[in-house]
Design a protein that fits this description.
- The protein is α+β, with helices and mostly antiparallel strands.
- The chain is 34% helix and 27% strand.
Length: 266
C-alpha cells in the first residue's frame, strides 16, 4: 500500500500539470536505445533479450537435449532501462504545436555491478517519470515547478536531505568532459535523502533538462522544423518506500498521524 500511496501522490501532481497517462512495455527496441545514445554510453547496464527461433529443427533439438543456451539468438530488444525513452519513440517525427507532458509508471532494468547492489540500488526497480517537451522556457519553468513542489512534499513527509546539482553516475570515467558539461549547465538536479542519521545518502528523484539532446535525433520539432527541448522528472518509487520505512519503521500504526494520513494509512 505504501508503494501505491507514493505513486498516487506523484501521479496526482502530474495530473495537476495536465500530463497525459501512458503505459509502456518492459522491452524496448535496441534501435531506440541506440538513438538515445544509451548503447554507446551505458553498455554495461543493458539487459539484452535473447530468443529461441521458431524453427522446427531447433525446437526438436531443445526438446531432446534440453540445451537452450547454445540455441539462443539475440533479439532486437532489451529490457527497458528507463521509462522516458519510450516517450521519444512515440513522438518521433512529429511536429508539436503545443507543449506535451507525458507520465508513466514502469519497471526499469539495469545490469548493476554486484558490489553496487543494495537496499536502494536494484537491478529491477519502479520509476514514475514525467516527460516535458516544448520550448526552452516551458521545459525549464516546468522543471522548476517540480523541484519546488517535490521539495515541499519531501519536507512534509519529514525526510531530510538536499537538492544538488549532479552528473549522471553511469558515465564512464572517459566521459568526464560530458559529465562536467552536464554539471556546469545545471542539466541535472537530484533530490538526495539522508537515512540512518545521515550515514546513508542516495538520490530518490532527479530533475533533468536535456535541451535538444533527444528531440533532435528523434526529430521532434516545432512548426519551424527546429528541434524542441525536453526534460524528465524521475522518481525511484522503491527508494521512496525504503526511505520512509527507515525513517518511521515498518508498522504504520506507530507513524505520526499526519504522515500516516498522507500515506492513507488512517
Amino acid at each position: 500500500m505504501l508503494y501505491q500511496s507514493i505513486d498516487g501522490i506523484l501521479s496526482n501532481l502530474a495530473m495537476e500539470r495536465h500530463a497525459k497517462y501512458r503505459k509502456y512495455p518492459s522491452m524496448i527496441p535496441l534501435k531506440t536505445l541506440d538513438k538515445c545514445g544509451y548503447v554507446t554510453t551505458f553498455p554495461q547496464n543493458i539487459y539484452l533479450v535473447s530468443e529461441i527461433p521458431h524453427q522446427s529443427d531447433i525446437l526438436q533439438k531443445i526438446k531432446k537435449t534440453g540445451d537452450v543456451e547454445s540455441n539462443l539468438r539475440q533479439s532486437q530488444y532489451a529490457l527497458s532501462p528507463a521509462v522516458c525513452f519510450h516517450c521519444y519513440e512515440e513522438l518521433a517525427g512529429q511536429t508539436l504545436e503545443h507543449p506535451v507532458i507525458l507520465t508513466a509508471l514502469g519497471t526499469c532494468y539495469r545490469h548493476e555491478a554486484t558490489w553496487r547492489l543494495g537496499n536502494q540500488r536494484l537491478n529491477e526497480f519502479s520509476m514514475r517519470e514525467v516527460v516535458l517537451i516544448g520550448t526552452p522556457d516551458f521545459v525549464e519553468s516546468e522543471r522548476n515547478w517540480w523541484v519546488d513542489c517535490i521539495w515541499k512534499l519531501f519536507g512534509d513527509l519529514g525526510l531530510t536531505g538536499r537538492i544538488e546539482t549532479a552528473n549522471d553516475p553511469f558515465y564512464f570515467s572517459d566521459d568526464a568532459a560530458k559529465a562536467q558539461h552536464q554539471q556546469m549547465a545545471n542539466m541535472k538536479y537530484e533530490l538526495v535523502v539522508e537515512v540512518d542519521g545521515g550515514t546513508q545518502t542516495f538520490s530518490i528523484a532527479s530533475f533533468n533538462n536535456i535541451r535538444e539532446a533527444l528531440c533532435k535525433p528523434f526529430r521532434i520539432t516545432d512548426a519551424a522544423d527546429k528541434p524542441l527541448h525536453s526534460g524528465c522528472i524521475a522518481f525511484g518509487i522503491d527508494r521512496w518506500v525504503f526511505s520512509l520505512l527507515k525513517k518511521y519503521g515498518e508498522d504504520p500504526g506507530k507513524w505520526q498521524p499526519h504522515i500516516a494520513e498522507m500515506m492513507r494509512f488512517s
